[in-house]
Amino acid sequence: MNPRLASLQPYPFDRVRALIAGVTPNAALRPIDLSIGEPKHPTPALVKDTLTGALIGLAQYPRAAGLPELREAAAAWACRRYSLPALDPATQVLPVNGTREALFAFGQTILDPVAGARVVCPNPFYQIYEGAALLGGAQPVFLNDGMKFDALDWSGVQLVYTCSPGNPTGRVMPLEEWQALFELSDRHGFVIASDECYSEIYLDEAQPPLGALDAAHRLGRSDFRRLVMFTSLSKRSNAPGMRSGFVAGDAALLKQFLLYRTYHGSAMSIAVQRASIAAWGDEAHVRENRRLYAQKFEATLALLGKPLKADKPQGGFYLWLRTPIDDTVFARRLHEQYNVMVLPGSFLARDAHGENPGKNHVRIALVAPLEECVEAVGRMMQLAKTI
Ligand SMILES: Cc1ncc(COP(=O)(O)O)c(C=O)c1O
């Protein structure tokens, strides 16, 4: 057995199950689950209809490189979205089956498991980065929320995962931060994997979040050296079950990534590729999606107040709520007394640099219908009054 498997940490949802084991929730209130970041708005008819119309594709083995039409649609979308002059669909884009598998597989492609190999992850963070590092034979190193890059020791770092807009914080990395990270990458030679799966969920239509490729281009790095961005249709197009996304960036890295993927067998079904082409070509459903999230943010933020506070996020669909008591105690009481499930922030972070930066926060995924989100936040405020 691969001994590295034993180093993997329990997934946050397993920890939640353990936290509430034996707790009987208040049955007088209907259950509301805001703990999981699974989009619940309807998948657009355009995507479903194209998928069913393309089922003939099930009779063919797909190629890991994907259909040229999909790569072209992805490249065209990225150029429109990030104001890029060009992106070569043949060398700078690859389809992936969602960002999760791609973020993991990319680690296995990049990492050389020598002694002292390290991977930088944000903290709090999406746990796949840590698993990719550990199974790739490297040690995860954590950059706590709010920490400056120069507070880290960069020796041995081979790969850096960034997440912007961030899960769970909703923070978007500004251009200066990208510049500092690119300079460090030039100095130390590490690769940057930019997780942008929340890039299309934001509150201000006039200010879409900055992406890594956009930042690189603005800083005169149009070859995207040592940089790959990861995006998907899961959140953008409410299609998490379709498992469709793409990566774009450094052509030399993507060539090796394609080699890895060919052996791993990570090709996307042709039917899913056809539906993905339709999805990347349409923005009307994405704007409607944002409108629904914006309504929920407006309504729930208006209800919050002392002692429960959350900032308006720059992107993503999470409220990152500060709790007046320990986050695990808050989440358990909320479940028991008010039948609402949220994710304790400390389960999304690691103890590093003397603290757990997720502590005293809970993550609330505003995925349920508006009226359920409002009801759930109202119940949280009731609980807070009793603390
Ligand atoms: C930060 C982050 N990255 C990646 C993913 C994976 O998304 P998908 O594989 O559906 O693209 C998620 C899913 O919740 C996420 O929160």
Portion in helices = 25-40%
Span between N and C termini?
Answer: 48 Å
Shape: globular
Unreliable runs: none
Binned strand content = 5-15%
Main beta sheet strand tally, sense and closure: 7 strands, mixed
Radius of gyration: 21 Å
- In total, how many beta strands? 12
By helix and strand content, what is the structural category?
alpha/beta
Ligands (ions, cofactors included): pyridoxal-5'-phosphate
Tally of helical segments: 13
Q: H/E series, N to C?
A: HEHHEHEHEEHEHEHEHHHEHEEEH
Mean pLDDT: 97
Spatial ordering of strands, largest sheet: 2-8-7-6-5-3-4
Question: Which labels suit this protein?
Answer:
387 residues; 7-stranded mixed β-sheet; 13 helices; binds pyridoxal-5'-phosphate
What does it look like?
- This protein is 39% helix and 14% strand.
- It contains 13 helices and 12 strands.
- The strands form 3 sheets. The chain has a 7-stranded mixed β-sheet with strand order 2-8-7-6-5-3-4, sandwiched between helices. Strands 9-12-11 form a 3-stranded antiparallel β-sheet.
- Strand 3, helix 5 and strand 4 (139-144) form a beta-alpha-beta unit.
- Helix 2 runs antiparallel to helix 10 (270-280).
